[in-house]
Structure formats: C-alpha cells, structure tokens
C-alpha cells in the first residue's frame, strides 16, 4: 500500500495542476490560442512561443499527463488492491471523468460550445480532481490501517449522513453557477461586495441576475457548511477524522467567501484579478473534494455500525 499511496499522491498532484491550468486558460482567454486544432497547435507539435499558446499547450500537456496517471493508477490498484472496493471506485471515477473532461475540452477547441456546456466541462474537471483527492486520502487511511480491519466506532446518524450528502451535491451546483458566470463574462454584473451595485437586491436581469444568483447560492452554501462543520466537530468528538474533515470544510468555505470578495474588488486590476480568480477556483475544488470524501466516510461509518 505504501507504493500505491505515493502513486495516488502523484496522480492527485497532476490532477491539481491540470485543473489549475484549465483555470488559467479560462481566466486569460487562451482557449483558442492554438486555433481550432487539437491535439496539434497551429499544425505543429511544438507551438510558437507566444504566451497564450504556451498557456494553452501546457494545459493540454498536463491534461494528457493526468489521463496517463489516472490510467496507471487504475491498473495498479486493480492489480494490487482489488479487494479495496472504495479505492477501486475512486480510481475508476478519476479515470472516467478525466477522459470525459478531456473529450469535452478537445470538442470545445474544435467547435465552439455554449456557456452552459463549458460550465459543465469545469464541473467534470472538478469531479475528476475530487476523485483523485479521495483516492489519495483513502490510500493514506488504508496504509495507516495496514491489514487490520478498521476498529468499530460510534454511530453516525442517517440525518448527518444526508446533510453531508446534501452539502456535497449543493456545492457542485454552486460551482456550476460560478463557472457559468465566468463563461458568460458576467463577472462585472455586480460591482461592490457584499452589496450588488449598492443594493441588497438589485434588478435581476442579464449579467446582474447571474452574478447575484451565484452570490445568494454561495451564501447559502456557507451556512450549510457552517452547520455541517459544527455538528461534525461538536457532536462527533469520538471521530477525529470526521472532526478534521468538517473543520477543513468550514475553513475552505470561509476562505472561498473572502476570495470571492477579492475577485470583485480586483476585477479591474488584471494582475491581481488573475490571482484572486485562481484562488477562488482552487479553494472550491478543495472544498468539493473534502465534502465528497466526507460523504463516503459518513456512509462507511453508518454501515459499519449497523
């Protein structure tokens, strides 16, 4: 398991870099710097040394490497950890969604896609990264346990399990709305934060309506995560793993709120905006990954105590 653990760590890191590269491509508008060609860039294997083509091609390379690593991980876990069904599922999901998001990315280059479809592409990339993160966390846990069965623990209620699942699903919806904001170029719909154009409830039309919907959805997500973290930390003191995951979710969500505010206040400062926008994307990716793994763990803990 030690070698598999490190393989899962490397796969997760490559997936993170691929996700980061995709965010840089989107925020710098470099998606078509290689023209409508894929996998070549302007008919060449090595593109011209322009910043835009370098960004796009680097992202393609990391996406390809992510696909290769996810395939290697799948084969390795199938060969040496086939009985660990949870790890097999994580590896399979990583491979599946890397292929899906890679195909959608290639299609977006060859033929222009709607903002709704491009937002879905971001969503699939997020699931691929979350799956690789679950694989890394799950491998770490299995390595710590060794060949020993997990010790019996206190019961996790069905209500808490459902709350965790609802938080993970809802976070994905919030991510999709945020990606839709980006792909419709609606970022400037609301000036100022927390008010939108100086109002608590602005006129909900065009880009203003899209951005305001995202803000409301994000605020509700924070309340949901705060409730989840509170219950995980104070009601499950005998489960340190669950307390750590709940605390991590709250911290990541809080940082996500601040990064969203930073995006608004740096919108017209190109250099600062890029960093704020990337932080915003990467924080929600980490939050979604933690919530997905937490969803699996509460399900396992509930089943183990039946």
Automatic annotation (TrEMBL):
Location(s), subcellular: Membrane
Q: In which pathway does it act?
A: Porphyrin-containing compound metabolism
Q: What is its main location?
A: membrane
List all membrane-crossing ranges: 7-25, 61-80, 87-110, 116-138, 159-179, 212-233, 245-268, 274-296
Listed A to Z, the keywords are: Cell membrane, Disulfide bond, Heme biosynthesis, Iron, Membrane, Metal-binding, Oxidoreductase, Transmembrane, Transmembrane helix
Pfam families on file: COX15-CtaA (PF02628)
Give the membrane topology: Multi-pass membrane protein
From the Swiss-Prot or TrEMBL record, give the protein name.
Cytochrome Caa3 oxidase
Species name: Paenibacillus helianthi
